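Good morning C.,

I know you're traveling, so I'll keep this short. The sequence:
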Amino acid sequence: MKKFTLFFVLVFFISMVSYGQSGWQWFNPYPTGQTITSMSFTNANTGMAVTDYGGTILWTTNGGNNWTSFKPFNNILYSSCLLLNENTGFAGEVSDYSPVHIIRTTNKGENWEVVLNTGLYNIEISSIVHWENNIYTSGGNKLIKSTNGGENWTMNSLDIYSTDFGLVKFINENTGFICGNPNVVAKTTNGGINWLSIFQDSVLYGFWSALFKDENTGFVFSYLRNSLRTTNGGLNWVLFLAQPESGAGDCNGNNIVIKDYYSTNFGLTWTYSINDGYAQKFADSNTCYSYRNDDQTIWKSTNKGVNWLKISNNTLVNTRDLTYCSRNIIYSLTSNTILKSTNSGYNFVQKLYNNQYYFHVFEFTDSLKGAVTGSDGWVLTTTNGGNNWVSSKIGNYNFIKISVKDDKIVLLDSATTNVYVSTNFGNTWNLVNISSEPGRLMKFVNYNVGYILNYNKKLYKTTNGGFNWILLTSTISAYDLDFYNENTGILNGITKYNRTFDGGLSWDTLLYPTYFNSMCIKYTGLSTLYTSGVGGRIFKSTNSGLNWIEQNAYPFINMQIYKFAFFDSLNGFAIGGGNILRTYTGGEINVGVKEINTLLPDKFYLHQNYPNPFNNSSNITFEIKKFGYAKIMVYDVLGREIRTLVNESLKPGTYEITFDGSEFPSGVYFYRLTTGEFSETKKMLMVK
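The tokens, ready to paste straight into the viewer:
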């Protein structure tokens, strides 16, 4: 047995993205786990971004520190965006099987409308640009244009040979450039009415983005890291080899950021700056933003792309599991690390790192005692919250499930349905032979009662802590199982599920609706269940699975949820690798915030709660000056977060929320209102 003493100062901070219309929120990566395809900024602080799968639109008013998320339409992929001013934004779609649209908001994303149905299929709105009130974009082989800020649009076929055009760039009202397949660069000098091909080549391939700083000087970039530079409006071109490949970059004066590189002399020399940059955009002459595909994060530069600061997080990348030990203490597991949060997930500290073998599963019996296991028979235990770990090795077994209850640890082997049991927290182990068939699932309801299902549909039960097992059935296959108590449980399949109300002696079978692809199941109450799987669709039942209500229709379409972790009936996580969703409302839309006055406040303000002192419940009134993200948290006297009352986008107005403290003891509590530019804390007293 070997003892590890580990000291870490590495702290990961997670900011929350607010969803105005959803009970589930992106928790990791922040602000979204969907690929950002385009960004647009009107200044260093105000910007928007759009994503592909899931159709999320993001809005920031504080330089990317916080993002508000909107989902105007379901099952939409966005390919481009334009922020015309602080209130008005546009988003362009990409679609194979339905006509693509351009949509618009005039109130910072709160409401969206379709302003153009192109009627075109199998194209994408590849870029949207503007010069003053003129807006230009392309789709397929057409130039799409508005001369009145998006109220009316015209579509004209480009009078040059090309099947598909990419990025369009206008230098002024009349002069613009466009590039596309097959390897064409074209120019207009009359606002897009006529186009002249200024470069075409059958050898060079994939010119898909163009950047021009004026009418004469510009670049076009190819996928093969070949670029062409002109200084006379396209009459002559110089070929640059091994330069940045085509990408959604941007320029401002002599400064260019595109893909992994930047240039301060408009492409005469290039310097590597950021890995896998994408959807780059200058906000002003110095400030630019970049999305990174490799780790799904947003970065910001304040010196023209020379140096970058990560302003979003993918702290819990490749997370396998999350577990609550209390409202504030949460542990996270990856294949080689364990992270710990002591403030309900707002930052995490690394508690264990290992690069010799893989972690598969972990469990904590309380905030201090836990164990982790995985490949090669390794088991590590802690009794002080992860500050120190003790390791032991049990052969070369591959353990896939674990149960930790007080000092008892039970491990399930993947190759057999055999378990190892320790009653002294891993000091010694007892092998219990159940079956030679491969193991699959295990769930202990309490110290004594547990269930195991193997790949051959055999379900076993123990009532003495894992030392003896009886066969209950050999006819049920499942991807997940859960029990609320010793008698009430469920075995979950992709298209059907089996329930028991007598401790596994009998089971019924119910079919999911045909559109289900369920991969996981979780009880949060005697009759309350959650399920999800492929596509990130989350369903809830409040009658033991007789009926299901979808909480989000196609909200996170590129995510596969395979695990739920709940602290109580309201607070929980849905986990799909590094993609993690969080709810403070049991997945329900938050209807607790009431708007009590629509007059526009002239400032942000947090009122004293009333009544105060109070018995169990009290009302909190607050004023929002302008549209944006708002959060109200409640803390105990030790500064620990105990309740999130508001966590969403709110329009200007006066609101009221009720704090229900019936589950907490008498004492002093604090509540804090936080917006993008305001924070205030007040004290309240609960007397029971």
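Safe travels,
E.
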